[in-house]
Amino acid sequence: MTNNFVIETHELSKSYGRVEAVRQLNLSVKAHHITAFLGLNGAGKSTTIKMLLGMIRPSTGSSELLGKPMSGERGSEGLRKRVAYVSETKQLYGYMTVEEIIRFTRSFYPDWRVDIERRLLARYELPPGRKIDSLSKGMRTKLALLLALARKPELLILDEPSEGLDPLGIEQMLESLVAQCGEGTTIFFSSHQIPEVERIADQVCILHRGRLVLNASLDNIRESYRQVELVFPNVPSESEVRLAGVESIQTKGRQMRVVVSGNVELLVERAHDLRASSVEVAPIGLREVFMETVKES
Amino acid sequence: MLFRLNPTTGQPLYLQLMQQIRHAVESGALQNNEQLPGIRTLAEELVISPNTVVRAYSELAHEGLLELRQGAGAFVSVKRSVALQMDRVHEARGQMRKLLGNFRDAGLDDDEIRRIFEAELFYPAEVSRKR
Fold it and tell me: How many helices (H) and strands (E) does chain A have?
């Protein structure tokens, strides 16, 4: 192994006319981990994913999948067999039945896992004889997931997999992803669902206006991100508490709320030096971290 | 074993899992030499990343509470030093319970107590280290 990253991008950018959808993105995704890709609508997540897969051409910059450069319109044949993708729209051949598309897809992949196919078909309760056109959105998502998982890819990329699924479906999907990661597949998925990300992800990347604004492990976020509530008889200026690790400061009356990504003890000490009458440190969830990083300043 | 992790608290899941395994050993729910669930099994059961389970198991193995046997899995292994540490934890827990009782009697609610605790955990450690 020369490389522990299965996805790497170098200054990857995409512009549509004057609109910069993705700007100088340097992304690295660790092998055998579950990485979540977060961002508001229009942040550039789908554009990034499509560039990774060679479905659209970057304006500038480059990317590598499984250590191989993606060049041209499509990746090499070999690479496409090792990478599976579940798209946002879950487009499938509507005129085929569930059974037919499974048979069709299976013929392209010699390493097809019949055991996984059978297990998921039963678990997701997919009707083999039904036409794909007549399936609900949730069922179509489950079918797309089945087709991707039974290939047992090295890298699985999913664009908002939980969209359109009911709570039980989401639970089954998360279980499937976790199980697949346990078998050695690297998972990279975009999502708007913070709770599901908080449960299964190892690593979180946040994209905002085409830029990567956070790439951290969830362990690190849980361990180091804190919200500190300060009360001062005489409120100091914000610059006095702007120490290393301070991400945001809000002042209201005698109160100050500071979010730090680390070094909370420095801030607490400074607060005592500044004669704070109250110092309270509380953990902060991924939701708050997300809101802080995508907040317009 | 029944574990329950909370993804929204400010504590890494692997640490939560470590604590719950430790607690299970301390409380006797897990006995010496007993086998823990496999990594994939536990990851699927808790719907967490298998890397989290790997990290918790390997750190506990490093601490000496678990023994990882090649190809067989993770087993509880209570050595004397671990037993000693467990006594200390047990003792500390008793003291903490008393202290908490005092705070609650004084009219503080649990959220207030938690915030005071977190703040103090950071502050005095810094000061005492300097002295």
Answer: 10, 15
Radius of gyration of chain B (CA): 17
Residue A96 carries which side chain, given as an amino acid letter? Answer: M
Q: Is A25 exposed, middle or buried (0-12, 13-18, 19+ CB in 10 A)?
A: buried
pLDDT tens-digit series, residues B47-62: 999 999 999 999 999 9
The answer to whether A181 contacts chain B (CB < 8 Å) is yes
Q: Does A125 touch chain B (CB under 8 A)?
A: no
As a whole number of Å, the CA-based R_g of chain A is 22
With H, G, I as helix, E, B as strand and everything else as coil, classify residue A48: helix
Q: Are A247 and A260 in contact (CB under 8 A)?
A: yes
What is the sign of the dihedral through the CA atoms of B18, B12, A163 and A287? positive
pLDDT at A189 over 60: yes
> Is-contact A132 A143, C-beta < 8 A?
yes
Q: What is the pTM of this model?
A: 0.81
Of A199, A269, A281, the CB nearest to B126: A269
Quick one: which of A109, A172, A101 has its CA closest to A130? A101
pLDDT for residue A35 is more than 60: yes
A225 chain-B contacts, CB cut-off 8 A: 10
Of A179, A272, A283, the CB nearest to B10: A283
Contact: B47, A32; criterion CB under 8 Å:
no
Q: How many residues in total does chain B contain?
A: 131
CA-nearest of A102, A108, A107 to A126 is A102
* Interface membership of B110 toward A (CB under 8 Å): no
Q: Is B45 in a helix, a strand, or coil?
A: helix
